[in-house]
What we know:
Blueprint lengths: L56 H4 L13 E5 H6 L4 E2 L1 H7 L8 E5 L9 E3 L2 E2 L1 H9 L3 E3 L1
Parallel strand pairs: 1-3, 2-4, 3-5, 4-6
Amino acid sequence: MELNTIQPAAGAKHAARRVGRGIGSGLGKTAGRGHKGQKSRSGGYHKVGFEGGQMPLQRRLPKRGFKSQTLRFNAEVTLAQLNALDVAEVDVLALKQAGLVGQLAKRVKVVKTGEITRAVTLKDIAATAGAKAAIEAAGGSVAA
């Protein structure tokens, strides 16, 4: 193979659309723009969503809802997941390494789902009232 013999695959390249080059080209005279109207004129176009002066759809519909972008930094862990984790002192880094929370997580909260039978110490991790009571009943502690 030589550099001067390299070619694209057959059918990969299409001839450029040459408008306004006579009747025989199929794109002569009006060059595929049709007759009259805003879209046929040079420079005649409108912004996305414009409906000819009619109130556009995105303005007719009511505004609704909001999704906070800070929510992606929050994560939840259940008591059952903590019980399965064989670490005595649990912090955010330990949960990330175990794959229980995502890598983006900054704030983690333990929720009361499942049972916990062994003592764990939570460091910089919040817990719901029920989860905190269950952890302390199992001999652990919550140091938020």
